[in-house]
Write a structure and sequence with these properties.
Shape: rod-shaped
Number of strands: 5
Number of domains: 2
Distance between the termini: 61 Å
Order of helices and strands: HHEEHEEE
Strand content: 5-15%
Structural class: alpha+beta
C-alpha cells in the first residue's frame, strides 16, 4: 500500500528529526491506514459473498406446490428443501418418503406436491 509506505517513511524522518508530535501523528495515521485497508478487504469479501448469493438465488426454481426447489444448472434435477434454503441457503436434499411425500432429514419439513 503506497500510503502506508509513505507514512512509514515520513514517521522515520520525523523520528530522526526528533519531532515527537509529528512522529506520533504519523504513527496514528499509519494505524488508521492499516485499519482502513483491513476494513476495505472485509467489505470487498462481503460484497463478493452477496453477489455470489444473489447469483445463486437467481438459479433457484420454485414450484407452485412448494414441496421442493431445484436449481437451473443442475442436470440431475435434485430436489432440495425449500425451508432450509429459505432459512440458511443450505442445499439439503429432500428424500422421497411415503406416498409421494418429500421429507427433509435436517429440519423435518414434510410436503406432498399432490396435496
Amino acid at each position: 500500500m503506497a500510503l502506508y509506505d509513505f507514512l512509514r517513511d515520513a514517521a522515520s524522518a520525523a523520528q530522526k528529526a526528533k519531532n515527537v508530535e509529528l512522529f506520533q501523528a504519523l504513527l496514528d495515521a499509519q494505524q488508521q491506514a492499516l485499519e482502513l485497508q483491513t476494513e476495505n478487504v472485509e467489505l470487498r469479501k462481503t460484497i463478493e459473498e452477496l453477489q455470489d448469493s444473489k447469483a445463486l438465488e437467481e438459479k433457484v426454481v420454485r414450484y407452485e406446490h412448494g414441496a421442493f426447489i431445484t436449481f437451473r444448472d443442475d442436470e440431475r434435477n435434485i430436489q432440495y428443501c425449500p425451508s432450509c434454503w429459505g432459512t440458511d441457503m443450505k442445499r439439503i436434499q429432500m428424500k422421497r418418503w411415503i406416498c409421494e411425500t418429500f421429507k427433509c432429514h435436517a429440519c423435518g419439513n414434510e410436503t406432498n406436491p399432490r396435496m
